[in-house]
Amino acid sequence: MDKLINKVNRRTTTGVAATLISVSYLLSRVLGLFRDRVLASHFGIGPLADAYTAAFRLPDLLFTLLISGALAVAFIPVFAHLVEKDKGHREAWQLASDVLNLCLIATVVLGVLSAIFASPIVHLITPGFDPARHDLTVKLTRIMLLTPVIFALSSVWGSIAQAFNRFVFFAMAGVFYNVGIIVGIVVFGRTGSIEGVAWGVVVGALAQATVQVLGLAGLGYRYSPKLHLRNPELWRVVALMIPRSIDQGIDQVNYTVQTIVGSSLATGSLTAYYYANNLKNVPLVLFGSAIATAVFPTMAKDAAAGRIDKLIEGFVANMRFVLFLIIPAAAVTVILRGYIVRLLFGFGNAMTATTLGWFSGAIVATSIFFLVTRVFYALEDSKTPLYVSLFAITINIMLSFALGSRYGVAGLAMAQSMVAAAEVLILLLLLSRKLPSIGGAQIWAGFWRISLATAISGSVMYLLVVRSLPLYLNDLGFLSIGPKFALIALAGLVSYLVPCYLLRLREAKLFVARFHEQILKPLNILNQRND
Predict the structure, then answer these.
(1) How far is residue 94 CA from its own chain's centroid?
(2) Which of the given ranges, 78-87, 157-166, 240-249, 487-496, has the highest pLDDT on average?
């Protein structure tokens, strides 16, 4: 078994890592969508689902402020430097233990305090909830406050694996997290108890941490229970984490503001926003986050070694590839939003579909944001993204209240898209000043051609939806909607790739090559073996 784990947990190149993470994220997101469908079938879009959705806010805020993405971007560059400096990795393992111990202490202490004061905090987050929904949200929140402690463990272990370019088990972790929640819905929640679903979230977090442990196989990982507060590298990581944690916390503040506004809207608004946001996250995580996560260790090493030309070269190539994937994905989200909601949840909901459509701008902008901020973090500059986010949160709060009160839950998605676009444009401008030869001309050359190809593809899909394959009120179930959706999506893919080839976009050839290498080639080998 150990030999098998070590073989699976082998070092990967950046390209393979990006593909691996994307495929794993895809599976995780498919399970996540199945999770939402099962949740919707059990509890619908109503008060119970609203309470469950709101209960994530406090645990997510706690985890985001203390750990989340801040740990990886702060820990990996420092840890990787120690690994390269000391072949025995003694200092590196000591740093990993100190970071883990500090994270555990922080999450346990603040988790206990949050559980004690959960009721007044929940009231601040959901002022529009009636007493029954408030009490249920408090109960679910206290259960879910176990997860930040568990996520602290899995985050440190996953960051160690990434630093060694081991991505298999790191990528698989999210799959097991969603499986745990599905178990909670199907098994624990079969009696109609939403508390069972909350316990499923805890089970999923434990499963995710268990998988991350496997990612340490063969690395010689050594844990020490002692916390060395005088370790200068520990405080170097903390210093890098603080701006990023605040930056990440701002995102949670944005979600909290939208929860506050949504709690005062019609019953079910929070659930509609939750489902639409999860659907929005599929292309966002599959393309934007996966690529940024895979390339960050390489970016950090190039920056640490002073190879700025290599850093810029990698940034330009990955930015163009992100745009190649995410712009058409956003077009599909807008044009096929009704199909997507009905196909995945089994019922139509105009509020969810409209909200999803307005999220398309955030899909593009946030995907670019992931990659741009990684360049700043690789250069050990976590303050610039923070300052920009502090500006963005002010605009987001104003827009959320203004647009939410006028357009309902769809207004919250409008606000998020507008703010995300403004934030990434400012960051790109600042990055071009920090690194003057950032490759803007190459990125722009790819952007306009990708946009033109997307416009052609979008027109084809729109005509099919309006003229040939419209969505009728009685179109329910996969057998009714699935074939129509597949035909439209296939037509959209072909009408996108053909113009891309005619416009000589190298990203189209790279996409086809990766698809053949990662999907078709293994299938051909399998068929040959079966013959």
Answers:
(1) 30
(2) 487-496
Which tokens go with 42? 């059990």
Residue 70 is predicted with a pLDDT of 60
CB 334 within 8 A of CB 388: no
Is residue 8 over pLDDT 80? Answer: no
Residue type, 370: F
- In angstroms, the Cα distances linking 66 to 99, 239, 245, 344 are 11, 12, 6, 34
Greatest CA separation for the chain = 69
Of the chain, the end-to-end C-alpha distance in Å amounts to 29
What DSSP element (H or E) covers 426?
helix 409-434
By residue count, the chain amounts to: 531
The mean pLDDT value for 31-39 works out to: 78
Q: How large is the average pLDDT for residues 437-462?
A: 91
- CB–CB of 382/240 below 8 Å? yes
Q: Mean pLDDT throughout 227-252?
A: 78
| CA distances to 158, 186, 210 from 174, in Å | 11, 19, 11
Tokens 């599976």 belong to 27
| Rounded Cα–Cα distance for residues 46 and 256 (Å) | 19
Mean pLDDT of 478-503: 88
Give the CA distances from residue 505 to residues 15, 317, 324, 458, 499, in Å, rounded to whole numbers and listed in that order: 18, 12, 9, 18, 9
Name the amino acid, one letter, at 377. Answer: Y
From the list 32, 60, 25, 107, the residue with the least C-alpha distance to 254 is 60
| Helix locations, 217-307, DSSP H | 232-263, 269-283, 290-304
Supply the pLDDT for residue 457. Answer: 94
Asked if residues 177 and 208 have their Cβ atoms less than 8 Å apart, the reply is yes
* pLDDT number for residue 222: 82
* Two tokens, residue 442: 């190459």
Q: Are the CB atoms for 401 and 100 separated by under 8 Å?
A: no
Q: Is the dihedral of CA 423, 426, 432, 433 positive or negative?
A: negative
Token pair 């408090």 in the structure block, residue = 138
Q: Which residues contact 489 (CB under 8 A, 6 or more apart)?
A: 332, 336, 461
Q: Helix (H, G, I), strand (E, B), or coil: what is residue 408?
A: coil
Q: Do the beta carbons of residue 315 and residue 438 sit within 8 Å?
A: yes
Going by C-alpha positions, the residue among 430, 425, 436 that lies closest to residue 384 is 430
